[in-house]
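Sat 14:20. Reprocessing the chain from the morning session after the first attempt stalled halfway. Input below, unchanged.
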Amino acid sequence: MLYLPELYYLQDQPDFPLSKAIEVTAVTVSRRCFWYEARLIAPASKSITPIQKSGPLPAELQARQKFVGELVAWLVNNSNPPDLFALRLDDQALPKQDRVARFDHHDDTDCWVLNLSPQEFSELQLAWQAEGLPADLFYPEGMQICVPYPGKSWRARLLRRLGGQRCYTPKQWEREKSSA
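Finished this time. Tokens:
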């Protein structure tokens, strides 16, 4: 099942601990992963090399989780902005173009997808809560709300005519409805 990020936290809350959320999520998901692919999209400095790393993850669980935590730190500390990087973790060799990886952060935080079973997602929610993060940091893909593009401007009318939509996460939709 695919899970999408709750952008209400990741974008709309300026003090949200994004780096911590990325690390906790990656380390927890890595429990069932054996391969990784990491790439700096916008390196903070031209002197950073390499900008891409990939291969098998350590076989022993503690070593794997330590490695993934260090990998996330390397990505965040060497990216500008800190969430603009690619990291994919999976139980199959990467790259796999025909399926979404278990942890698929392929651009910035808007482009982050988790491919987990409901039981794995429940375990991840417990890990988030144990670290003081919200349990609804991600949501099932089917809960995204898309409506015809709002507004009265010529641009909004054109976008609606072309089938343009505005999509909301569950918490963003809740806020949108309460402000209407």
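The chain has six helices and nine strands.
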